[in-house]
Amino acid sequence: MIMKTETKPQETCPVKITIDLISGKWKPNILYYLGEDTQRFGQLQRKIPSISRRVLTLQLKELERDYLIQRKAYLSPLKVEYSLTQEGRSLIPILISMKQWGEVYLASR
């Protein structure tokens, strides 16, 4: 009798984990702009004009939940800033490579 061996779940694939963390229509854009500097909500919304407030809020919460960004709230004056964590900063070379690949791809079309 042949026994079926169990395969490892997809979640153990490092590529899939990376893609899952940065997937979402706007997450790469958000991470890329936060790689430039700390940003406030309104600054991010101006840099990504097609994103709705609701979607930006949800994407920021997911990135914070996954420890890729950090949120810092100030009381005086009342403001909230977002910045990359160490894990988030480690994604910047990947995002830059993706940007460069995209530029070459677009130029070849």
From TrEMBL:
Keywords: DNA-binding, Transcription, Transcription regulation. Residues 13-109 form the HTH hxlR-type domain. One of its GO terms (molecular function) is DNA binding. Transmembrane segments: none annotated. InterPro entries: HTH_HxlR, WH-like_DNA-bd_sf, WH_DNA-bd_sf. Pfam families: HxlR. PROSITE patterns: HTH_HXLR (PS51118). The keyword Metal-binding does not apply. This is Helix-turn-helix transcriptional regulator. It comes from Vasconcelosia minhoensis LEGE 07310. The lineage of its organism: Bacteria, Bacillati, Cyanobacteriota, Cyanophyceae, Nodosilineales.
